[in-house]
Design a protein that fits this description.
The protein is of the alpha+beta class. The protein contains 13 helices and nine strands. 62% of the residues lie in helices and 9% in strands. Helix 1 packs antiparallel against helix 7. The radius of gyration is 60 Å and the shape is rod-shaped. Bound molecules: adenosine-5'-diphosphate. The site of adenosine-5'-diphosphate has 21 residues, from helix 12 and helix 13.
């Protein structure tokens, strides 16, 4: 943002105004020279006139400034060049003591008040024009705005300082301040014009370098310091030469005065202090602005956070609504599932009765006929009836397994925990497979430590052991089967080892899946459902609170183990899980 007062941008306005005043001043005095109007030239007949070249310089400076502001930089630069040329040539005349013929080039000098060389502008005026011309050239060619603005502002403050001292000299009657070393003096309106030009040039530099982030340019301390130093040194010079004049007129008066030098030192210190103060003030202001910006950012952030919180709250409410709707839906679904479950249990209960009763009749009566209890039968009839009997037994075991599995899955299997000795159950299990093993010429052995007391479901433990043992008999053609138990950590591991066909390693993982029967030469000759191991693992986990495992070597034999707690928690004593109908 450029510093502005309403819609007017102050530094820009000051620069334009300075340009206009300078041009008008130049034109007025030039007119005065052509019309012989001494008021315009001198203001008062006792003081020095503004020289023709000076008036020309002001006109060119003013126009140059206006062209630069109006973005006609090329024209501004050319005008600046001429202004600097006038100044530098005049200075050269003074320094080299020559007459280059420029003093009265355009106008024959006809006013002779207080001039050292007719028509020649004062040396400080020439210096001011050199600086003004330089400022215009820099302004017209600046690429790096920040750097060039600083140079221009320094030039502007020098011009202002020199003019200020001259004008102050007029105000306090210190001639040495506006007339250097008895040479032509700077006219009072020349001094005023340069003060205005100094301000205009500095303002333009200011206008061009203010950014959106700060009102004052960062180089601001430099022209302030240089302006004050210029004023101080010029005054010091003026006082010194005034002193010299006094000495010349009245001879040395007592001890030399150190006031002038003290003034110089104080002025320089003051300039440094002022620059530092401006610099610090700027830094503080910049920090203040940063803090303000930060505050604004924080306010925006906090606003955004509030909005986000509101959004989260709304989402939360929506979520809660959805959750409670879903909960209601789930409750309804749960109810209908419970109803389905009840129907399933009823179905299982009735099926177990309805299927097993006729099957038992089929098996029982066919067995009686096979044993010739109803009179003699021929060999073909015997063969067929034996097939009926085997098929019936297979079907019965399948139905029994399916019903057990369904009951476990429905949590309706009745469990009954009792105290018993482990070796009783293992003996019973071995007896169960004894006849079959003997028929196949398999040797049965056991290694069960006596005195292992159990508190668990005896019937289901026996069922598991029978499953393992009957499999061992089924899938072994020679060798032996050994039943062992090993108590540890209040648990017992019971394993059945056989020297049967074994199981390929890659198929071990399939064993406990439902309806899995592995391919083997024995598969066709043995009956099986593929549910035995699946049911055994379910019973081990969910009724006996343990786990099953298997290890096997293909072609050499297998070992199936059951690891269960010796005692189930007493709270589960005689636990009934649903229907008792698991006969
Ligand atoms: P099945 O009624 O077929 O015996 P199981 O679930 O008891 O059903 O056994 C699944 C399959 O695991 C059997 O078909 C058999 O291929 C294999 N298997 C089980 N026990 C043994 C064993 N001791 N030796 C070799 N294979 C066995």
């Amino acid at each position: 943002m450029k510093p502005s007062f309403g819609h007017i941008q102050i530094p820009n306005l000051l620069a334009r105004l300075g340009g206009v005043i300078s041009a008008v001043l130049g034109i007025s005095v030039l007119t005065g020279w052509y019309t012989h109007n001494e008021t315009l030239l001198q203001i008062s007949t006792t003081v020095v006139p503004m020289q023709f070249n000076t008036a020309l310089g002001f006109l060119l400076s003013g126009l140059g400034l206006l062209f630069v502001i109006g973005r006609h930089r090329g024209v501004g630069t050319i005008l600046g060049f001429f202004v600097m040329l006038i100044g530098l040539l005049t200075l050269a005349e003074y320094i080299l003591g020559v007459d280059l013929g420029i003093d009265q080039l355009f106008m024959q000098h006809y006013i002779t008040t207080e001039t050292s060389h007719p028509g020649r502008m004062a040396p400080n005026t020439a210096l001011c024009f050199s600086l003004t011309g330089a400022a215009l050239i820099v302004l017209g060619n600046s690429v790096k705005i920040r750097k060039s603005s600083m140079i221009v502002s320094v030039l502007g403050s020098l011009i202002f300082g020199l003019a200020f001292v001259a004008l102050a000299g007029y105000a306090v009657g210190l001639e040495a301040a506006y007339g250097w070393g008895g040479l032509t003096r700077m006219a009072v309106h020349t001094a005023s014009g340069f003060m205005i030009l100094g301000v205009a040039v500095t303002s333009l530099a200011w206008y061009r370098s203010v950014s959106t982030s700060s009102l004052l340019p960062s180089w601001f301390p430099a022209p302030v310091g240089i302006g004050v130093v210029t004023i101080t040194t010029s005054l010091w010079q003026a006082l010194n030469s005034y002193n010299d004049q006094l000495v010349e007129q009245y001879g040395p008066i007592g001890a030399p005065s150190y006031v002038n030098h003290a003034l110089l030192v104080i002025g320089i210190v003051l300039a440094a202090a002022l620059s530092l103060t401006v610099f610090l003030a700027q830094a503080a202001r910049a920090r203040g602005k940063e803090a303000e910006a930060m505050n604004r950012r924080l306010a925006v952030e906090s606003n955004e956070r509030k909005q986000a919180e509101g959004e989260i709250l709304r989402l939360n409410e929506g979520l809660e609504r959805t959750v409670s709707e879903r909960t209601l839906e789930l409750e309804a679904a749960n109810k209908s599932l419970q109803e389905l479950d009840r129907l399933k249990s009823m179905f299982i209960a009735s099926m177990s009765h309805e299927l097993r009763t006729p099957l038992n009749s089929i098996i029982g009566f066919s067995s009686m006929i096979v044993q010739d209890m109803t009179g003699p039968i021929n060999d073909q009839q015997r063969d067929y009836l034996q097939r009926v009997q085997r098929a019936g037994e297979h079907l019965l075991s399948l139905i029994t397994d399916v019903i057990d599995i369904s009951k476990i899955e429905a949590g309706k299997l009745a469990v009954q925990y009792t105290h018993f000795a482990l070796d009783e159950v293992t003996s019973e299990a071995l007896e169960g497979v004894d006849t079959e093993a003997r028929q196949k010429g398999l040797e049965l052995s056991e290694g069960i430590p006596a005195g292992i007391e159990m508190y668990t479901d005896r019937k289901r433990l026996l069922q598991c052991l029978l499953n393992f043992l009957s499999n061992a008999v089924k899938y072994s053609e020679r060798g032996s089967i050994r039943l062992e138990a090993r108590p540890f950590d209040e648990q017992v591991e019971i394993s059945v080892n056989d020297t049967g066909i074994g199981i390929p390693e890659q198929e071990l993982g399939l064993l406990f899946e439902p309806f899995v029967r592995l391919e083997s030469p024995l598969k066709r000759h043995t009956t099986g459902t593929g549910l035995g191991l699946y049911l055994t693992r379910k019973l081990a986990r969910e009724v006996l609170g343990g786990e099953v495992s298997v290890s096997s070597q293909f072609g050499k034999g297998s070992a199936f183990s059951l690891r269960i707690p010796q005692r189930m928690p007493s709270g589960q004593d005689d636990k009934e899980r649903g229907s008792n109908d698991d006969k």
